[in-house]
Specification:
Blueprint lengths: L1 H20 L5 H16 L6 H19 L1 H8 L4 H14 L6 H17 L4 H38 L1
Helix pairs in contact: 1-2, 1-7, 3-7, 4-5, 4-7, 5-6, 6-7
C-alpha cells in the first residue's frame, strides 16, 4: 500500500509542474495533495509545522505570482484595461495552441491587438505585448522555483 501512495505522491508532484505549461491544470492543489497523501496515508503526523508553514507561504506566493504579476506590470506600464483582462485569457488559450510556443505567441498577439485597437503606436503596443511575455515567463520561473523549494522541504521533512 505504501508503494501505491508513494507513486501517488510523486505523480502529484509531477502534475504540479504540468501546470507551468498548461495553466488550466491546478498546480497548487497537486502540491497539497502530495503532502496530504504522505501526511495521512504514509506517515500520519510525519510532516511538522515547518513544512506546513513553508507550504502555506509558498502557495500564497504562487497564487500572487500567477494572478497579480502580469496585471500589475501592464498597469504600471500604461496598458489599457482590456490588455490586462485579455492577457490571462490568452495565456490559457495559448496553452492549447502549439504548446509551449502558444503560451508566448498568443498573449503577445492578443495584447498587441488590444493596444493597437486603442490607438497606441505599433512600437508602444509591441513594448506592452513584450511586457506580457516577460511577465508570464518570470512568474512561471518563480512558480517553478517555489515548487522545487516545496519538494525539497518535503524531502528534507521526510528524511529528518
Amino acid at each position: 500500500m505504501d508503494i501505491l501512495l508513494w507513486i501517488l505522491v510523486v505523480a502529484c508532484f509531477v502534475l504540479s509542474f504540468v501546470a507551468l505549461i498548461f495553466p488550466v491544470v491546478p498546480g497548487i492543489p497537486f502540491l497539497w495533495a502530495a503532502a496530504l497523501i504522505y501526511h495521512f496515508g504514509i506517515s500520519p503526523g510525519g510532516l511538522g509545522w515547518p513544512f506546513w508553514t513553508v507550504l502555506v507561504i509558498a502557495s500564497v506566493f504562487i497564487l500572487v505570482a500567477d494572478f497579480i504579476a502580469n496585471k500589475l506590470l501592464l498597469q504600471q506600464s500604461g496598458a489599457v484595461k482590456w490588455s490586462e483582462r485579455v492577457s490571462p485569457l490568452a495565456i490559457i488559450v495559448g496553452a492549447f495552441i502549439v504548446p509551449p510556443l502558444g503560451l508566448i505567441l498568443v498573449p503577445f498577439i492578443a495584447v498587441l491587438a488590444m493596444e493597437l485597437l486603442h490607438r497606441k503606436s505599433l512600437q508602444e503596443a509591441a513594448r506592452l505585448a513584450g511586457i506580457t511575455v516577460v511577465s508570464f515567463l518570470t512568474s512561471t520561473l518563480a512558480k517553478a522555483v517555489m515548487q522545487v523549494g516545496i519538494i525539497v522541504v518535503f524531502i528534507l521533512s521526510v528524511i529528518f
